[in-house]
Amino acid sequence: MTFRFTAIAACALAASPAFAQDDYDRTDWPSSFTVGTASQGGTYFAYGSGWANLVGEELGLSGGAEVTGGPMQNMALVHTGDAAFGMTTMGPARESLEGTNPIAPGLEMTNVCAMFPMYQTPFSVTALSSSGIESISDIPDGARIGFGPAGSTSDTYFPRMMDELGVNYERRNGGWSDLGGQLQDGLLDVIAFAAGIPVPAVSQLEVQTDVNIIEFTDEEQQTLLDAFPVAAFDIAADTYSTLEEPATSVAMWNFAVANCDLPASFVEAVVDTVMSDNARMVNIHRAAESTTPENADKNTVLPWHPGAAAWFRENTDAEIPDDMVHGG
């Protein structure tokens, strides 16, 4: 896929939605919708709840977020139509399309379509300062590591990353808020987060106790870049009060997805609501600074929903090939 954007188009997008509510053909629109997110205390839930409420208010529908196990489960829920929308990272999206989603092994989840880019998910490690763990090499053998909800991006990829880096651990799962409490109570040694930043659970921990946010060394980062579908990423120093300088990390892109059978005009209206005023999205969560049209080219995995493709084609200079549009 190739995408071209102009500064004029970007400025126009920031000004106002391209359509008014009455401009849409609402034939076959649902009266309500659900967005599959992840556990409370994580970025998916905060971000997803925000855009679900925004879309519901703007389009006069009942919309809300659903707590789920994260990207893998969201792919399954959206594929079956149990959720109209969901949020996923590109790694789990690819595995789901190929039929290797652990929730339904062998099922190729081909009825999930891309809607819009969200943000990058950095992989980061947090420990209590009192633990003395200041680097990956400091993590002791048999450390109790919380990897997030079962089936989440973090749970899918971070254990493999720790294996690649030679860390021996006991694997623990749970919601981010619960894991943060366990870390504070001494029931965990480390939490391995894969979530948009700032992660609410980390921000809360910083208020309550002293923590170490552990970065990868350059060698460790390169090891992960060679082994996994991730990109180099620096966690900005102003993300957390604990950081004094950017922290070296790796990251994976997130996209909002839709059931491919939803009416094109409905999905186009949703994309317009989210993408036409980035300031509103940033007010929902800072990670939405990356929820911009120029990041549409980060989707190299999923077919685009026809309604989403129509919005990008009509309101930006994006060129989305027909063979990357569902049904095209």
Global morphology = globular
Low-pLDDT sequence parts: 1-16
Taken in chain order, the helices and strands follow as EHEHEHEHEEHEHEHEHEEHHHE
Instruction: Round the Cα radius of gyration to an integer and report it.
Output: 20 Å
**CATH superfamily of the largest domain, called what?**
Periplasmic binding protein-like II
What's the architecture of the largest domain in CATH terms? 3-Layer(aba) Sandwich
Structurally, the number of domains stands at: 2
> With helices defined by DSSP (H or I, 4 residues minimum), what is the helix count?
11
Question: Strand pairing plus helix content: what structural class?
Answer: alpha/beta
Distance between the termini: 14 Å
How helical, in percent, are the residues? 25-40%
CATH classification, class level of the largest domain: Alpha Beta
Strand content: 15-25%
Q: How would a textbook summarize the main sheet?
A: 10 strands, mixed
Chain-averaged pLDDT: 91
Per the CATH scheme, the topology name of the largest domain is: D-Maltodextrin-Binding Protein, domain 2
Signal peptide: 1-20
Protein name: TAXI family TRAP transporter solute-binding subunit
Keywords: Signal
Pfam family, one: NMT1_3
